[in-house]
Amino acid sequence: MTRPPKPFLQEIDSAADPSAAPPVPDASAEGQAMQAVAALSQARGGGMRRFAVWAFTTLFTFALGVAAWDF
Q1: For residue 53, what are the contacts with CB-CB under 8 A and spacing of at least 6?
Q2: Lowest CB count within 10 Å: 10, 29, 33, 50, which one?
Q3: Which of 59, 62, 40 is nearest to 51 (CA)?
Q4: How many angstroms separate the Cα of 21 from the Cα of each of 8, 28, 38?
């Protein structure tokens, strides 16, 4: 028989102080992602292309849901 796993306990001497952490640097937003989304939203594809994208998205979401359910 195998032994059941034992819990891992780690002793912490001092608690971390959030006020001592350095500030998060602000990255300059260039807006490339927003420009790409705006360009994609304005480009109206044909009916077949929109249906294909809808079908792929639907099937991908369904597969992701089934995988999450089985996990």
Answers
A1: 45
A2: 10
A3: 59
A4: 27, 21, 37
Longest dimension (CA), the chain: 64
Task: Assign 2 a pLDDT band (cuts: 50, 70, 90).
Answer: confident
pLDDT of residue 30: 65
Q: What is the pLDDT of residues 23-45, one digit of tens each?
A: 888 765 567 887 787 777 776 77
d(CA 71, CA 68): 5
